[in-house]
Task: structure prediction
Amino acid sequence: MRATSRPDRLWLALRLPDLPAHALAIDLHHDAALAILEQRHVIWANAAAIARGVVQGMDASTAQLLSGCIHQERNLGHEHKLLAELSAQLYAFTPYIETYTSKQVPQSGLLLEISSCLMLFGGVHAFVEKVLQFFAAKNLILAIGLAHSAQAAWLLSFVHYDIHGNESKPVFVERLQQLPIQLLHDYPAQVDTLEKTGFITFGDIARQIAAQSISSIKKRFGQEFAKTLCDIFGIDQDFQQSSLFEKPVVMYKPQEFFNEEIQFEYPIHQIDQLQVPVEHLLQQLADFLRKRQWETHQIEWTLADIYHSKEVMAIYADTAQSHWQLFFDLTLIQLENRDLPFEVDTLTLSCRNIQPIQTHSQLLEFDSRRKHNSQAFTTTAAKLKARLGDACIYKLSYRDSYIPEESNQLIALNQPSNQKLPDRHLASLRPCWLFKSPIEIEVRKRGLYWRGYLTLLSGPERLQGNWWKAPSARDYFLAQRNDYVRLWVFRDLHKKQWFVQGIYG
Result:
């Protein structure tokens, strides 16, 4: 392996050993015994719990008996969100940021490639000091590792070495060789096999590679494991020498979002006075979206006064929009249904749920009226939902069931509906109007009576099933009332009663 004063690439690993606790806003210095669980096993414990014998991997019942600890469930969503927020803030230090999350152990953090940023910050030591100050200001416990590759830096974060700034690749490799192979947390099966073979440290693996080749590791332990070792030691997988070509580092792209506000010269106390600023902010949003070829389903308005009181109003559209007109109409509808809670000093428009504009293949259409009608329906439906509520606007979708009243369901307008009916429905007479629940028919001396006497015209068609819940067996008939209205009726063979199920058009 070639020796240089400094590797071409330099990675800084930022491991957050207490990330599960940070994500749940747990006080690390709490006097009571605290533990975080995942699948009923301890993945993190504070000092008080550890002092009473709680260890990682212990089942929840044993930990409770030992320490009487207070426990919470791990929240991976909050952990990922915290890592994303830290990545966005560390973008001020370097544009090369990767997230590392172990699948086997609760160890997560960030990997920064810093070689291109050192002159700006005055060298490695000054850069690391600024990063440490950044995390200290946030009260986040941090373990760091510096090395020539991302995997090597992550491993070296589990031991402490003073960073001077003049470390070379041979120095990093020498430090790596002293580490126990148990730190390869993501490869438990390979580590178990290596331990049984007599391997203890990474130095044992390095000597095996030097004596034979990396191909022997690849054959026995798999391509992925061999690739990880090559990254750790900085060697080429095919030629067993220092890598001639380094893989390009992926540049971090911070998540873009829209957030603009208008601060009024005098407080607004009438809804009508908000129309012009609402339109202005929405036009700015539309310009922001069009320039990036984006669209959105949701925007959020925040009304605030000089005393920092706030009211948030979310606006939704079934179809994603890149223009402002529909959101303007929906906003006005929402404003019509409420009074201003206070005199508004600031109006803020936020949009975070952004997606690329979806390209839809369309048939060549010479009649523009069809397209206009489709857009008009979408706009009308969105306005009705804004005025009446989501629960009032829906469409029907088929659901496979032998029980007719359970054979459809109400779904949102933007969801695809199932209109594929089984053959038994296509081959039988079915009414266009089914009652939500069957209505009982009165049995009189002259015959069946429901708003008039009924005459059975055809049938029966037997439908039975639902044996796993409440068994159902029905004989269905086409019936005609004395006013010539045709009905779909059935006799429940279990209840010995007659019901009307629906009306034919």
